[in-house]
Design a protein that fits this description.
It is globular and about 60 Å long. α6 runs antiparallel to α9 and α7 packs across α8. The protein is of the alpha+beta class and 241 residues long. The protein contains nine helices and eleven strands. A four-stranded antiparallel beta sheet has the order 1-8-3-6. Strands 2-7-4-5 form a four-stranded antiparallel beta sheet. It has a three-stranded antiparallel beta sheet with strand order 9-11-10.
């Protein structure tokens, strides 16, 4: 839809609005605003009353929880066209997580009251938000299961898969992976930096990734998928042979 679509066009391409009435989308677009955040900037804190439902127009957002000991756990990332703060919008409660810009990003902010009003008048929009919320809950449960039961190596591999291209062999990772520090990676998988660094070295020895100064540069998707599942990686074929 182009790099800079108008808000109404952007909303119509977001999954919850796929079957919505066009007049509903137009009314919400008229009340929407855009806001840009720098990498690392906090969008809202956990337990805050934030009066918007946001949609990621560009960039990445991390949704995190902070433990009593000060340890941060990443529950998931929100990418382009994903929504944020569905719970606070529909139950009118406080935010359930902290949202932080993982990269420079732009969000489309919809007033929560306007979204609730739109859902009351457009049943297809309501059903779509219900389906999206159900899918988000499934992803959160998967993340919690990984943190509770998964080995760190598997968690690191699974997280890096979101940066792997759908190609064969070792290829450069998707935009943003080269900026991912070992500290950020550790935070994302619920461990400490040293253990995350050791996992990266093991993945490099398995030829699942290539590192440059400790950061991921290239990824072999098939080998990384095998590591994420905890199964033997495919035989390594040296390209020079």
């Amino acid at each position: 839809i182009g790099e800079c679509p108008d808000i109404q066009t952007f909303l119509s391409h977001c999954l919850p609005f796929a079957a919505a009435i066009q007049s509903t989308i137009a009314e919400l677009a008229a009340q929407a605003t855009q806001h840009s955040y720098r990498s690392g900037e906090t969008i809202f804190q956990e337990g805050q009353r934030w009066p918007y439902l946001a949609l990621v127009q560009s960039g990445k957002v991390a949704c995190t929880l902070l433990s009593r000991t000060g340890k941060t756990h990443v529950l998931g990332e929100r990418l382009s066209y994903d929504s944020i703060n569905e719970a606070g919008t529909f139950d009118q409660g406080v935010t359930t997580t902290r949202a932080r810009a993982l990269t420079d990003c732009t969000l489309v902010l919809l007033p929560a009251e306007a979204v609730v009003h739109a859902v009351q008048n457009d049943s297809e929009l309501g059903l779509a938000f219900l389906a999206a919320a159900s899918q988000a809950r499934r992803r959160a449960i998967d993340t919690i299961a990984d943190l509770a039961f998964g080995h760190v190596l598997q968690r690191v591999a699974k997280f890096l898969l979101s940066y792997a291209r759908a190609t064969t062999g070792m290829t450069p990772g998707l935009h943003g992976v080269e900026d991912l520090s070992q500290g950020q990676l550790a935070e994302a998988v619920g461990t400490v930096r040293d253990i995350a660094a050791r996992a990266l070295i093991r993945l490099e020895k398995a030829h699942a990734v290539e590192l440059a100064r400790g950061r991921v540069r290239s990824i072999d998707r098939a080998r990384l998928e095998a590591s994420a599942r905890g199964v033997p990686v495919p035989p390594y074929k040296n390209a020079k042979c």
